[in-house]
Design a protein that fits this description.
Blueprint lengths: L6 E9 L2 E10 L2 H14 L5 E6 L2 H16 L1
Antiparallel strand pairs: 1-2, 1-3
Length: 73
Amino acid sequence: MTNNKIWLVIEKTTYGDDSSFSVSKTNKDFNEAIKYKVHLEALNDRSNRSYFLASDVETVMNNVISAHNKKVA
């Protein structure tokens, strides 16, 4: 895969109706980013925490906006 994308492993933590998002890891290599995400998921012992990959700010913002819209609805 030859591109200049930066892959972000995003951690989402939900507290009741609120969610917080933070970048756990960045990587230029998709395979390394997915490995990191898989390992985080395997070690995750909290039901209110999840992980996803994003390749740009637009993807992250779409997830944040979607979560906000669900909360407001």
